[in-house]
Amino acid sequence: MTAPLGDSDNRPETGSAVESRTQRRGQRKGGRLLVGLTALLSLSACASWRNPPPKDPEALADYKEANDPYEPVNRKMYNVQMWAYHHALRPVGKAWAWAIPKPIRNSIDNLNQTWYMPTVFFSDVGAGKPRRAGDDFMRYIINMTLGAAGFIDVATSLGYPHHDSDPGLTLATWGVPSGPYMFLPGLGPNTLRDAGGYAIAQGLSPINYVPRGYGLLTFNWAYNIAGVLGGFSSHIDEIDQVEQDSLDPYAFIRSAWQQNRQSQVDAIRNDHRATVPDWYN
Amino acid sequence: MLKTCLSFSRRTALGLMTTALVSVAALSTAAHAEDAQGFVTAFGGKLVGIINSDKSLSEKRQEVLPLLQDNVDIATIGKFCLGRYWRSATPEQQAEYLKLFHQVLVNAVTDKIGDYKGVSFRVTGATNTPNGELVSAQIMRPGQPTADMGLLIAKDGGMKIVDMIGEGTSLRLTQRQDYSSYLARNGGNVATLISALERQLSHRH
């Protein structure tokens, strides 16, 4: 339930100009991130966009636990995102899941996961976890070859299961403080640190260094759009459930995302496995 | 000589006693850990048995209800979820809230029964935490990746489940954030929360 909002970011912009379509993925995402950040920073400059810490000690404890001083801005951003969700993302995602058979959707998920592997690899190297990085490396090599350029996940059955990692988590293991919680339209739940990590992740994605050319651009677009729809459409039910079951979905998502993120950081920190993989298991 | 002998024997006795104490402690923790794990294994086994049976969905829901009531400390979870607002609520409000919360929690579980056909699970271990014993388990579903989860077991007056952790997210902590944020934005009156829960429940049926 944390991924869906994050996944929904690279959705196709149906209304954008032709020129912007020809931009590379990194620029597109970087640009959107920049717009989001600029908007957030300029808005948060006004005092009214910031919740002052409450006086009551118990309320203060809640305030600190939420780590969300810019809540008024974040809620506005959340509303923007959910508006887009109900009016565009959800119907399109539903149609995608209806039209595309499950095995094809799975292959597209595999492709996206495999092509993100270099980012995961460098993140694990950065976090100083050689065993995890080794698994990433093997996953990438195996799935890019035996797995038909990433469409089939062969590596899991060969003993290299997938795990998540990203530069934001690496920064966390270095002890970089998270900074305040932020909800960025397009990117979903974030913190200052994780948004920075996201920018680094874009730099680590090989597909952003592919030379321009009509065929490649078409592929790049197809890859992005299909990947996003795939990742997103599988989470629609979860988002709907949160909206139905919680009284304050914004706070529910904030808490669940923060806890999940912390557990990922802990998982990396506590991974003390030996470097040599279990070849014989 | 006598002194050395004495001190030796005293040291030996002390050593023996310590060893005995330590092993008794180790034994009892082991027994404890097994207990909590055994509790989760038994509870999970019954739950999975109901979910995978060939009965109708409404029959399954009927059967799950007493299982939840016996093994989950719904009142404690409810109290936790209300956080600092529990004390500001009147006794009537507390009772009313707990009644509604009970229904909300039971619904949350029974709503999912249909999605879990063919499920199996495996208890993988247990760790002691200040809030009770955290038993970890893996959930296997056909066509789905294995999911890790944890059940927090409190032991005061019989074992009961007091929290569930999935994907590193504690259910009761998330729920408390949800409720307390709702209350903070609606004047902090528990009556508002109660009517919101009533609305939520009435929308379902």
TrEMBL record, chain A:
Keywords: Signal. It comes from the Bacteria. Pfam families: MlaA (PF04333). Coiled coil: none annotated. Residues 1-30 are annotated as: Disordered. Belongs to the MlaA family. This is Phospholipid-binding lipoprotein MlaA. It comes from Asaia siamensis.
TrEMBL record, chain B:
Coiled coil: none annotated. Keywords: Signal. Residues 1-33 form the signal peptide. PROSITE patterns: TAT (PS51318). This is Toluene transporter. It holds the Pfam family MlaC. The keyword Signal applies.
